From TrEMBL:
It holds the Pfam family AhpC-TSA. Residues 9-144 form the Thioredoxin domain. PROSITE patterns: THIOREDOXIN_2 (PS51352). Transmembrane segments: none annotated. This is Thioredoxin family protein. InterPro entries: AhpC/TSA, PRX-like1, Thioredoxin-like_sf, Thioredoxin_domain.
Length: 185
């Protein structure tokens, strides 16, 4: 497992389009996932200890962001050949077991992760209503273990600001997680 930090936010970068299968049996696109006030695109997976440590907080924040008009989507781009826990059946199981309030999509050819410049799990991309990038930071102070329950909700507060003003915070702390498991060429 290689720990990787996300790059700084490139404010205003447009959200790349996608059309991917979801664990709910539907196909989802950028347009179908966005909310009236923006979109949070999350690159996650099932096996990563960083994701496991915060998955319940991701679900909580996605529910709270939906109330603010922010759509949320999770994308799994890892190559599951070395990590069977990231396979399709496990994606379906986790999404159902945890009652994900967002689509959980499979990026089998990894083209969407490459288009976004995703580097790790979790990797968060927060967009405003015009689908310009406004947040590329962490969920909160959690790492491989969850931060204290009263830790500031960095991602939620940033996306609330985006929903209200269309602008993200100028200072952002990078997310850190396991590197994306790229297919060998």
């Amino acid at each position: 497992m290689v720990s990787t930090a996300t790059p700084l936010c490139a404010f205003g970068t447009p959200a790349p389009d996608f059309d991917l299968p979801g664990t709910d049996g539907q196909r989802h696109t950028l347009a179908s996932c966005r909310g009236p006030n923006g979109l949070l695109v999350m690159f996650i997976c099932n096996h990563c200890p960083y994701v496991k440590a915060v998955l319940d907080r991701i679900i909580r924040d996605a529910r709270d962001l939906a109330a603010l008009g922010i759509g949320c989507v999770a994308i799994m781009s890892n190559d599951p050949s070395d990590y069977p826990e990231d396979g399709w059946d496990e994606m379906v199981r986790i999404a159902q077991e945890k009652a994900f309030p967002f689509p959980y999509l499979l990026d089998a050819d990894q083209s969407v992760a490459r288009a976004y410049g995703a580097v790790c799990t979790p990797d968060f991309f927060g967009y405003n209503a015009s689908l310009g990038l406004q947040y590329r930071g962490r969920l909160d102070a959690s790492r491989k273990d969850a931060a204290p329950a009263d830790a500031p909700r960095d991602l939620f507060e940033a996306m609330r600001l985006v929903a209200e003003t269309s602008q993200g915070p100028r200072e952002q702390i990078p997310s850190i997680g396991c590197s994306i498991k790229w297919r060998s060429t």
